[in-house]
Specification:
Elements (H helix, E strand, L loop, with lengths): L4 H12 L1 H8 L2 H7 L5 H23 L10 H14 L19 H21 L11 H4 L4 H14 L5 H22 L11
Length: 197
């Protein structure tokens, strides 16, 4: 019996993005949240980074019929903006520019964007030290429809023909790369000290 394309596709995307995904998990802002040590000021910078990312990605997902219903759309952007207002960051932050993907790559982008919502609830709970309720962290709480959307994304991956595998990888890697770029704008990696020779 042949191996289902979906299982192979998801495993392939996990492998293709493993290195950059791990770097993002270890990024300073997320590490500090895990340690209950990210300041409110820096939390605002993190939300700004995430807003820039989604402002760049959502138009791409919305432009393609197969990804438009699953991308999160304006609801996700509105929750980010609401959280920023709640913590006193009124002005929306500028986008870095639109993500450029072809039609075959866009499902790889959706894999990253919708997959990231699964960890959002974990981050929501980790932010208990900053917030008593949902206000200020509603983006991470989500709207409640993320699990069924993720199931639909998995089904969409199952439908992708094998010849799209490379395109799916490119879309996922480009999307993770954009998020890393947005995050690094606010949280640049510390420079390593040069050793005297």
């Amino acid at each position: 019996m042949a191996t289902p394309v979906a299982v192979g596709a998801r495993a392939d995307l996990r492998l293709a993005t493993e290195e950059i995904h791990e770097r993002l998990h270890e990024a300073e802002a997320f590490r500090l949240i895990g340690e209950s040590a990210l300041s409110m000021h820096d939390y605002g910078r993190l939300l700004g980074s995430i807003l820039r990312f989604h402002s760049s990605v959502q138009p791409v997902l919305a432009a393609h019929p197969e990804t438009a219903p699953l991308g999160g759309g304006m609801d996700r952007l509105e929750r980010l903006q609401s959280d920023l207002r709640h913590i006193g960051v009124a002005a929306p932050l500028p986008c870095l520019g639109r993500l450029t993907l072809d039609a075959d790559e866009v499902v790889g982008c959706l894999y990253v964007v919708q997959g990231s919502t699964l960890g959002g609830r974990v981050i929501y709970r980790q932010l208990d030290y900053l917030f008593d309720g949902a206000e200020g962290r509603s983006f991470f709480l989500g709207s409640g429809d993320e699990p069924p959307k993720w199931q639909k994304v998995r089904a969409l991956l199952e439908e992708q023909p094998p010849e799209r595998k490379e395109a799916l990888r490119r879309g996922a890697v480009k999307t993770f790369g954009l998020f890393e770029q947005c995050l690094a704008r606010e949280f640049p990696e510390p420079r390593r000290a040069r050793h005297a020779s």
